[in-house]
Amino acid sequence: MSKRVLLEVIDLKQHFPIETGFIIKRQVGAVRAVDGISFSVNEGETLGIVGESGCGKSTAVRSISQLYKPTSGSVIFDGIDLVNASKRQLLDVRKNIQMIFQDPYASLNPRMTVRTIIGEPLDIYRKRGMLDPSVDKHVIEKRVEDLMERVGLNKVFKNRYPHEFSGGQRQRIGIARALALNPKIILADEPVSALDVSIQSQILNLLTDLQKEFGLTYIFIAHDLAVIEYISTRVAVMYLGKIMEISRAQDLYKNPLHPYTKALLSAAPIPDPVVERKRKRIILTGDVPSPNIERFGCYFYDRCPVRMEKCKTNIPPMKKMDPNHEVACWLYQ
Amino acid sequence: MTATKSHGDNTLLEVKNLKTYFKTDAGIVKAVDDVSFILEKGETLGIVGESGCGKSVMNLSIMRLIQSPPGKIVGGELFYQGKDLLKLSENEFRSYRGNEISMIFQDPMTSLNPFLKISTQMVETIRLHQKVSYKEALEKSVAMLKLVGIPAAEERVHNYPHQFSGGMRQRVMIGMALSCEAKILIADEPTTALDVTIQAQILELIKELAQKMDTSVILITHDLGVVAGLCDKVCVMYAGKIVEKAKTDELYAKPAHPYTFGLIQSVPRLDKAQDGKLFSIEGQPPNVIDLPPCCPFHPRCHEAMPICKTHNPPTIDLGDEHEVTCWLYAENKEPSDE
Fold first, then answer.
1. C-alpha span between A253 and A251 (Å, rounded)
2. Which of A90-99, B39-48, B202-211, B289-298 is least confident?
3. pLDDT, tens digit, for every residue of B170-211?
4. DSSP code at position B114
5. Which residues of chain A lie closer than 8 angstroms to B200, CB-CB?
């Protein structure tokens, strides 16, 4: 596996304004969905992002793919800063950045046939003349059929509509669509959390196969730690819009450093009653606090079981514990 | 057919050959088809299965909450402390529902009325079943909220559901469900809508309260990890039938049915590094209207035999309350002429 950095995110912030007033709008605050995250993704690896709902993991990938205009920071893909890129440049780069969404029921247009859905990215780029001139309708047709076969759908079904498929099959359609343009990186936003256990493993296997075959890079979001540990090379743990810890997947379970990571790992149930009985749970009190207020201390301060005086007023910086393990916590400074 | 076990003193609820069918334009959906199990006093029973396997319908049937038409409980018996609940009239049954047998649902937002204060909803439940004054009922509500760990319960009881977070709402639901000291608590995917850290809190709460109040719990879930931590016994459902029943430890250590085996193997494990592929059950969950003949699992089964397609699998007792419905364990693999 090469170590070339494919995507680099530097201090990315995504704030959504809270406005009041009916005609004359006045900003009274901001939801700090993503509040300064930095990481890099190497070519061919899978970066997992894990965290509870509302921690900003979905917003992070949407900002990376420029579906939201980031408030500040930069996203560098192949040497181009996407945040400041022109529309034309962005269109060109986006060919290489595709997304898979969580809800296979909502992310496919119910009025389009499978053929149109999977072929749409190709059609869009063909109309704009951004594909090879040899690509015509027949080539696209063939490509759609190949993609369907590759993701495990019968190509006979290409004129059917999404409602005729089950959840797992729909997710396969979504994957085929993401593959249509031969992207370099796929941002997968909880691709398996809406699926049943038996289907979930099929999709996970499909994603790892495709990665090997096409040399894909993934940013993979999930709230299920076991899934993340299985599929990822490295894992970033997010909380309230901040990254708390980044580490190699196998190290994270064996040697979690951040108190939040520890709590998260201990809360995840393990499907084995013998192991389960022996485990010690760190039960966090309370809920995730509101992301609307600006914070000057550690973001995890309110729920941290080992908080110190210092954490209240100082934001802990990311510290490299070893080349592949970074943690933002005052315990280790 | 399962041999009827003697009614031990500990049996609280016995479900016998329960069948719930739905009439649809496309045909009859056998959502629950011939299901039997026993719930003992103080025990936690897990019911595991994928979506559409009938686990929710089964529990709605126990509560007699199936909408009719299109649904109907077409057969079976439901013994609660020796009394067949299915033979009671709707009016008689009301004194059981919410009082003796109580239920919490998956989505705590949609199961609370957003227009009414928590106090109104809790007092209503309590006064429906117990002859107490409003004030006493309110005191009881506050006590329940305290018990489920709502801080400042005296004030929060007058709040509306939207003022609570998801985990808090689920706590309120649990408090409400247990306010009449129900003997059985049916929890239908109580933590599916919640985050892992909140899930851990809620599961801990259910475990604690069940012990404290001596309540039996039926926990419906698709998450095998949740079952492992909480349940004494597990039933695995597939396409409206219970395919395997066992004590939790036994089930995880020695899953007998190929479906159970597949289900356990296909979940990535946090505590074990996995290289290579996950085990996966091929194919899609079956369409309940058009089930495969005989064993409904045979098209997806990795150990399917010719007989699975032609004859219904027998239920075999493997000892120690472990039962499996599969041809693999039949001594006589020849179809008997019945």
1. 5
2. B289-298
3. 889 888 888 888 889 999 888 887 888 888 888 888 998 888
4. T
5. 266-267, 269, 281, 283-284
pLDDT in tens, B232-281: 999 999 988 899 999 999 999 999 999 999 988 888 887 776 667 888 88
Q: Do B225 and A166 touch (CB under 8 A)?
A: no
Question: Is the Cβ–Cβ distance between A258 and A328 less than 8 Å?
Answer: yes
Q: Which two tokens stand for residue A264?
A: 């998260």
| Spatial distance between the Cα atoms of B41 and B38, rounded to a whole number of angstroms | 10
Which DSSP state fits A52?
Answer: -
What pLDDT is attached to residue B244? Answer: 93
| Chain A CB contacts of B228 below 8 Å | 269-273, 275-276
CB count within 10 Å of CB A205 equals 18
Name the E strands within chain B. 11-24, 27-40, 44-48, 71-80, 83-84, 101-104, 184-188, 216-221, 233-238, 241-247, 315-319, 322-325
Contact of A34 with chain B, judged by CB distance below 8 Å, is answered with no
DSSP class of residue B97 equals B
* B40 strand-pairing partners: B11
DSSP string, B170-197: HHHHHHHHHTT--SEEEEESTTTTS-HH
Nearest CB to B270 within list A197, A268, A273: A268
Q: For the residues B146-174, what does the mean pLDDT come to?
A: 87
**What ipTM did this prediction achieve?**
0.79
Interchain pair A271, B198: CB under 8 A: no
Radius of gyration from C-alpha coordinates of chain B: 21
CB contact under 8 A, A199 and B225: no
**Closest CB from B168, B195, B271 relative to A270:** B271
